[in-house]
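To: structure subgroup
Subject: Chain for Friday's discussion

All,

I'm putting the inputs and outputs inline so they're searchable in the archive.
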Amino acid sequence: MGERKGQNLYYPPDYDPKAGGLNKWQGTHALRERARKIHLGILIIRFEMPYNIWCDGCKNHIGMGVRYNAEKKKVGMYYSTPVYQFRMKCHLCDNHFEIKTDPQNLDYVIISGARRQENRWDPTQNEQIVPETKETQRKLFDDAMFKLEHGAKDQKVGEEAKPVLGRLFQRNSSVWRDDFEANSQLRANFRKRKKELKTQEEKDNALLAKSSLAVALLPESDNDRRMAQLMRLHSSKTIHEKDKERRTAILNRPALPSTSNTRIKAVPKLERASLGIVKRTPESTSTLPEPGKSASAVEDTVPVGQEEEKQKSAQKGGTSDKEKTLPSLLLCNYGSGSSDTD
């Protein structure tokens, strides 16, 4: 198929071979639109993101491997290696970010418009194979003693790793001895996990619909359950205790309302004479006018028992009459109100 490419080109009748190739004769570039800024030293290429980044414009995450149409240009040299810079537009916003190569550290450096997601670690911590540095390689080439010591260390590490490698080999052989059974178990676990995720999604959607929310719910954890139990609103007393306290308060409450806080309006003081009220002693109460008798006749009559009682009290040297008199009574005369009743 390769030999047919040159034969499939169309040469118009007015084509002059002296002008050069077809692109030169037509005044176009072989890369077409990708070379529209070639006069500025910029070439449009397909750039693949070398690591995870965060866009400074929309604050969204852009994963490693996402491809963009980037403007590539040469910005310098590191010894004999050119340094290129790439400028591209975020597919989620109008922000542009620039990345350039770093031949010294064999890496890419973000110039502007984004920041790198830091997830780098020391490969020696997770027992990865670490390539030798340039200094170590130089010592291995120049120093025979260092090379011998380095080889002895490598042999020691290999001997220590043999038991681990043996256990891994046995585990893999026991698990994958029957491919059909292992595959069936994996698919069963996958279906079970898929049902659990579907059930949890239905519960989350029901909760969001009930609370009228439109947020993404994270999976529950033990810490979340403990915090929810601590923040749960519940009464410190039971219903029976509340009913008992309510009955006790009702029994201890006075039947009549208290008048200590009520204000009583002052009533104007009235004279006894105007109301027809007469203050009489017990002696005078016994001599109330009978029907058919006048008030003057009642005043002239003195009871016999009263005189004897006075004589006995005088002989015994008792108390005065005022101390032995009964409580005074207030009698109201609703008669004519004459001066005789006073």
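Points worth raising on Friday:
The beta strands are 43-48, 53-55, 61-62, 67-78, 81-89, 96-102, 107-112, 114-116, 277-280, 329-332.
The two ends are 152 Å apart (CA to CA).

D.
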